[in-house]
Automatic annotation (TrEMBL):
<dbReference type="Pfam" id="PF01261">
    <property type="entry name" value="AP_endonuc_2"/>
</dbReference>
<dbReference type="InterPro" id="IPR036237">
    <property type="entry name" value="Xyl_isomerase-like_sf"/>
</dbReference>
<protein>
    <submittedName>
        <fullName>TIM barrel protein</fullName>
    </submittedName>
</protein>
<feature type="domain" description="Xylose isomerase-like TIM barrel">
    <location>
        <begin position="53"/>
        <end position="255"/>
    </location>
</feature>
<dbReference type="InterPro" id="IPR050312">
    <property type="entry name" value="IolE/XylAMocC-like"/>
</dbReference>
<dbReference type="InterPro" id="IPR013022">
    <property type="entry name" value="Xyl_isomerase-like_TIM-brl"/>
</dbReference>
Length: 297
């Protein structure tokens, strides 16, 4: 389905907006692949990316968001792009999005950023990805002036990526919700970026950790713009990451309506703090999601 027409073409859209979340799973005909953000398992990806992906597939994961693009070498996880894509095709797996290190270019010229973005676009197209995602900014950039500069870059990249036939999104952490003299970085991003070319990837852990709003409340302000989600849990005492079902976030209560969100892809994630190891955590989260949360999508 064409992502631009997703909300329009959803036959359940009108009805879903007035149904409780418990009914949405029964009404929605939309199917989402079980996704995983590969930063969660970066230690295993560094050792043997293909063996790791095979192990994740056995757990039920079908779609992934990467972080491992090398623009200079045109490779993913040390493997040339075309070769890596062939391996994914053989495994019947997809990379629908990727986190690209745009933060390194925030203080560089527009021309330098455009040239780098062209390399990202080429890689994403060769991987048959749907989205290119800006994932992070450095601590020194988390000021009003830094976010103002950021939105200018986001708008520029969004237009460039859109012209190439791909989607572009911004991924939040917690620092975007810090007070900056009566505003927040997230307010600046929401209000000063082009909603048609700069979409949003909602990290629900960081919203619950740091924002004065719930995921549903954020989505209600700009419905249809939150095209991707990160789903992860928060340790009950340390508030660090933990496996789904082991933490304090009750997704039965806070899971947003995917139709209102404009959801196209979601990724389970755990950036660290594994109970045993990264592979076991991936399996624990997959099992919990399939048993407890898949009903909402």
């Amino acid at each position: 389905m064409n992502r631009r027409n997703f909300v329009k073409l959803s036959s359940a859209a009108g009805l879903a907006s007035c149904l409780p979340i418990s009914c949405l799973s029964m009404q929605s005909s939309t199917k989402f692949k079980l996704g995983y953000q590969l930063f969660s398992i970066r230690d295993e990806m560094a050792k043997d990316p293909i063996a790791t992906l095979k192990a994740l597939k056995k757990m039920g994961y079908q779609d992934f968001e990467h972080f491992g693009f090398d623009a200079d070498k045109a490779s993913y996880y040390g493997i040339p792009t075309k070769e890596f894509k062939k391996m994914l095709d053989d495994l019947e797996l997809t990379f629908s999005s990727g986190h690209y290190p745009f933060s390194d270019y925030l203080l560089k010229s527009d021309d330098e950023l455009k040239r780098y973005t062209d390399k990202c676009i080429k890689g994403a197209l060769e991987m048959s990805s749907n989205y290119i995602t800006w994932p992070w900014i450095a601590p020194s950039q988390r000021t009003v002036d830094g976010f103002k500069r950021l939105v200018s870059k986001l708008n520029m990249i969004g237009e460039q990526v859109s012209k190439a036939g791909l989607g572009f999104a911004y991924h939040n952490h917690g620092y975007e919700f810090d007070d900056l003299d009566g505003t927040t970085g997230y307010d600046i991003i929401l209000n000063e970026t082009d909603t048609s070319t700069v979409k949003l990837q909602l990290d629900m852990y960081w919203v619950m950790h740091s924002a004065n709003a719930t995921p549903r409340e954020l989505i209600a302000k700009q419905p249809g713009r939150y095209v991707m989600w990160h789903i992860k849990d928060m340790h009950k005492t340390s508030r660090d990451y933990t496996e789904l079902g082991n933490g304090s976030i009750n997704y039965h209560d806070i899971m947003p309506d995917p139709t209102t969100s404009g959801l196209e892809f979601y990724y389970i994630e755990q950036g660290g703090n594994y109970t045993e190891n990264s592979l076991k955590s991936a399996e624990t989260s997959a099992n919990y999601f399939k048993e407890q949360l898949a009903q909402y999508l």
